[in-house]
Amino acid sequence: MYDINILHLIEGAKQAQGFTVIIDVFRAFSLECYLYDMGIKQIRPVGTIEEAFSLKRHIQNSVLIGERYGKKCDGFDYGNSPSSILKEDVAGKTAIHTTSAGTQGIVNAVHAGEIITGSLVNAKAVAEYIISRQPQTVSLVCMGNGGIRQAPEDELCAEYIKSILEGREFSDMEQKINRLKRNGGEHFFDPSRQSIFPEADFYLCAAYNKFPFVITIDQDETGFVANKKNIAYPS
Length: 235
Hints:
Number of helices: 9
Structural class: alpha/beta
Mean pLDDT: 97
Strand order of the largest sheet: 1-8-2-7-9-10
Shape: globular
Radius of gyration: 16 Å
Helix content: 25-40%
Oligomer: single chain
Largest sheet: 6 strands, mixed
């Protein structure tokens, strides 16, 4: 039914064509799902820190969220950690979001048609949305670590989405996620790195199929907009 291509990193985003899913499990696009669950009004993904500060000056009631090398960007309100963000600080506001991998995929997917984001927390919703759109070509872009090194969690997410699209059973998901603790997510369990990568983030990002919505990427006169779109699952 579909021509499905799994691509990798920033170069993969540049090559993506057709219906494109930009995947970043740890943590960018898991975080955006949690932000919408917290009642954020809107998310604006950008490529650079400078763009983020510029938008902040023009958008009232906005918060800066983002990281470089995992660490919160200097002068930002929050880093990329879903467990560290307080609902009362973001509800009703606009999040301006920039990351080392995820948002770089959005800005580099210049040949894509429709773009949405993907993570384990909404993987089934992503697959169901693709099925509803019936595209001929699907590009699943695994953004990896910093957009330059492949990451097991993004590869797992892409394979899972692909299996749903192809109507195949995907077994042992719990075991595969558990293996990420030792291969892909080990930094969340390093006591010396808890200030940047809290252990709680691993479990939030690994809670697969938690959210029945996708995040679509649109553009307006201000730039990119990441919008929540609820998905009705087939009965």
